[in-house]
Amino acid sequence: MLEIQLDKVINDNRISFHISAKAPKIYALQGASGIGKTTCLNMIAGIQAPDVGYVRIHQRTLVDISNQVMIPIRDRRIGYLFQDYQLFPHMTIRQNITFMTAWNDHIEALTEALKITHILDAYPIRCSGGEKQRAALARALSTKPDLLLLDEPFSSLDDISKQESMTLVQQIFETWRIPIIFVTHSQQEAQQLAHEVITIA
């Protein structure tokens, strides 16, 4: 179950975001540039606080402003793939993936499924855009999250890599059965991948 109701005013613009679902879905979050799509993801993840609202996943309340509940980021069990991936350049891919947890059988299976075992000892600068994305995705999934957030995950990829990445996200959803929220400017991406499109106006 996923319940989100968040409101925040930024520069006289009110951002309002709402989800209520009993079963996992893939959501596409759309809206004009600068409208606050990334802010919505940041509020869910705990990077920014909403003015009003709540976030509940599987009966766990992560945020409830009216009751002064704000669970720390590390305890939210939310995976977040940032738009620029935010891999640490001084760390190997292996070290980036295990930044939040120790190497284990789950992470080993992840790296095999994402086809990045050959770059584990490489540094991000030596990796392609698609490899960096899969490494960042492995890091986001390393702690077995209850929710996955993707900020424009396909925007910097070529057409072939984009299609491969969209297929990968679909496979992750089918395997993990967790809700996924991704930001996109593309109607085609939203229509192909999302079960529901949410527009921030």
From TrEMBL:
What are the residue boundaries of the ABC transporter domain, all occurrences included?
Answer: 4-201
Q: Which domain of life is it from?
A: Bacteria
Q: Which InterPro entries match?
A: AAA+_ATPase, ABC_SmlMolc_Importer, ABC_transporter-like_ATP-bd, ABC_transporter-like_CS, P-loop_NTPase
Keywords from the UniProt entry: ATP-binding, Nucleotide-binding, Transport
Q: Which SUPFAM superfamilies does this one have?
A: P-loop containing nucleoside triphosphate hydrolases
Please verify whether the record's keywords include Cytoplasm.
no
Drop me one GO molecular function for this one.
ATP binding
Q: Name one Pfam family in it.
A: ABC_tran
Q: What is this protein called?
A: ATP-binding cassette domain-containing protein
The source organism is: Staphylococcus americanisciuri
